[in-house]
Specification:
By secondary structure, the chain is mostly helical. It is built from 3 helices and 2 strands. α1 crosses α2.
Length: 71
């Protein structure tokens, strides 16, 4: 499974090996740990929002939903 994000700062920090001691860095570090444990053959990459318009639109629609749904 590949994860495409349109937030460059998040992707850059996720792929970085530098240790960030901020709260943001702690969140990224937790995500990295989960990713390593759950997704062996996966990758995270940056794509510009225009290239990821469908996923962005679905993500926005999903947050407006009042009940849990799988899109």
């Amino acid at each position: 499974m590949d994860f495409e994000l349109d937030a460059k700062k998040v992707v850059d920090n996720f792929l970085s090996t530098k240790h960030d001691v901020t709260e943001f860095g702690n969140i990224i570090q937790s995500c990295q740990s989960l990713f390593r444990n759950l997704y062996e053959n996966s990758k995270v990459e940056f794509v510009q929002r225009q290239a990821n318009e469908t996923a962005h639109t679905l993500g926005k629609a999903a947050t407006l939903s009042t009940s849990f749904q799988i899109l």
